[in-house]
Amino acid sequence: MNHEDQPKRKFPSLFQMMKSFTKDLGKYIRDGGPNVTPDEYADRLDVCNTCEFFDKNSYRCTECGCMMQHKAKWATAVCPKNKWAILPAMSTKEIMQRNIKIAKENNIEIDEEDIAKYNDKDGGKK
Hints:
This protein is mostly helical. It has 5 helices and 2 strands. The protein has 2 domains: 3-86, no CATH class; 90-126, no CATH class. It has helices at 14-30, 38-49, 68-71, 92-105, 112-122, and strands at residues 54-55, 60-61.
C-alpha cells in the first residue's frame, strides 16, 4: 500500500493541538529560537513526506496536528513518532553562533551591534 492509499487519518482535537504547540513554542523560545540548517530542514521534510501520518493536502502531521513547514525548522522540535534525527543539545552561545551562520548563509542581514550587546550581557552563556 503506497502513501496515497493510506486511510484518511483524523487530526488531534483543537485543544490537544494548542497544548502541543504551546509546549513546543515555549521550549523553542526558552532555548533561544534555534533553527535547523537548510539541509536538516530538507531531511526532516523528506521524512514527513514518506510518513503515514503526514497529510499532504494540508501539509500537517495527523499525529500532532502541526504544520510541518514550520515545526520542521525548529531545532527544539521533535517528531511525535521519533522519525527525525535527534540534534545535540546546545548552549545558548552555540545556538546564537548557529543562527548567525544560517542567517549569513542565507544572506539575511544581521545587526552586529545586537549580537555584541547579547555577548556583553551574559558572555554568551546559558
